[in-house]
């Protein structure tokens, strides 16, 4: 008798899970309850709240309690997270004073992390014009700081990398100019620490190419709306395009030796 077995096909990116949404506690517009209601309406099964915090944020306990109350009123798997900024070139993070009660720690960099702290684009451009920094320096700083930040965050909670290297792209660095080896330390750090990478609908990052490098190394990829409004939930256009490209790559036969 032949052995028959049903295998569940696990998608490379689960579109029924949203790994990063914002509420009115930080940069979002809506309450936890309104977001959960909207997520139920569009069929989301897992939802991670990832509001942006700094050491000065005093609302974190209320935020956590709001999500905990919502957990009792929905079948959606609600996860409590915060997004922290990479503050320095050594990977230091702008942690809140209390990291207790978090399911996830999301790491992002909206500004280039310099040894003296995160730099706004205008300051970086001044440093470039003066010759104090080169474009190669920008890439090295961003990759090294993000790599160290992922390693640091993973000591405290399961980590997610938000908008990988977006500070570089905002400064006009073209990813196509960079070899795959440039990204290897960051990819390896995510793989070794078990950190996942968010594929952001709002920020359209990482690129399909960079997402492919993470996926090829076995790094989990997560659909993240980065929604600041409930109307943004469940609309996967960019993420679906990245997923489609990954699926095509996965089904292609290996090149002949």
Short description:
With 257 residues, this protein is an alpha/beta fold.
Provide a descriptive summary of the structure in words.
This is Hydrolase. This protein is of the alpha/beta class and 257 residues long. It has one domain: Alpha-Beta Barrel (TIM Barrel), CATH 3.20.20. The protein has helices at 32-41, 60-71, 121-130, 135-153, 166-170, 180-193, 208-216, 238-251, and strands at 17-21, 46-52, 77-85, 104-108, 112-114, 117-119, 159-161, 196-200, 221-224. The strands form two sheets. Strands 1-2-3-4-7-8-9 form a seven-stranded parallel sheet. A two-stranded antiparallel sheet has the order 5-6. Helix 7 links the parallel strand 8 (196-200) and strand 9. The longest helix is centred in the middle third of the chain and has 19 residues, at 135-153.
Q: Keywords, please?
A:
257 residues; alpha/beta; TIM Barrel; 8 helices; globular; Pol/histidinol_Pase-like
How much is the radius of gyration in Å? 19 Å
How much β-strand is present in the residues? 15-25%
Oligomer type = single chain
Would you tell me which CATH topology applies? TIM Barrel
Shape: globular
Low-confidence stretches: 1-9
Overall mean pLDDT? 92
The count of strands amounts to 9
* Lateral strand order in the biggest sheet: 1-2-3-4-7-8-9
Distance between the termini: 38 Å
Q: H/E order of the elements?
A: EHEHEEEEHHEHHEHEH
Q: Total helix count?
A: 8
């Amino acid at each position: 008798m032949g052995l028959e077995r049903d295998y569940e096909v696990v998608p490379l990116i689960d579109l029924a899970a949203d790994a990063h949404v914002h509420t009115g506690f930080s940069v979002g517009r809506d309450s936890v309850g309104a977001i959960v209601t909207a997520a139920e309406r569009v069929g989301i099964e897992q939802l991670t709240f990832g509001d942006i915090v700094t050491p000065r944020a005093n609302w974190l306990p209320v935020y956590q309690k709001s999500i905990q109350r919502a957990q009792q009123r929905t079948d959606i798997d609600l996860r409590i997270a915060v997004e922290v900024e990479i503050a320095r070139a050594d990977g230091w993070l702008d942690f809140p004073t209390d990291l207790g009660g978090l399911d996830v720690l999301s790491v992002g960099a909206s500004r280039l992390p310099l040894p003296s702290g995160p730099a706004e684009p205008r300051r970086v451009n001044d440093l470039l014009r003066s010759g104090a920094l080169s474009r190669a320096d920008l890439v090295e700083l961003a990759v090294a700081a993000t790599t160290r930040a992922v390693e640091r965050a993973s000591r405290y909670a399961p980590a997610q990398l938000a908008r990988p290297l977006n500070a570089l792209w905002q400064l006009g660095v073209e990813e196509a100019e960079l070899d795959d080896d440039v990204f290897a330390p960051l990819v390896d750090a995510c793989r070794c620490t078990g950190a996942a990478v968010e594929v952001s609908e709002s920020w359209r990052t990482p690129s399909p190419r960079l997402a492919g490098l993470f996926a090829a190394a076995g790094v989990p990829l997560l659909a993240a709306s980065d929604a600041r409004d409930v109307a943004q939930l469940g609309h996967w256009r960019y993420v679906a395009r990245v997923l489609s490209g990954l699926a095509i790559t996965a089904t292609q036969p290996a090149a002949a030796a």
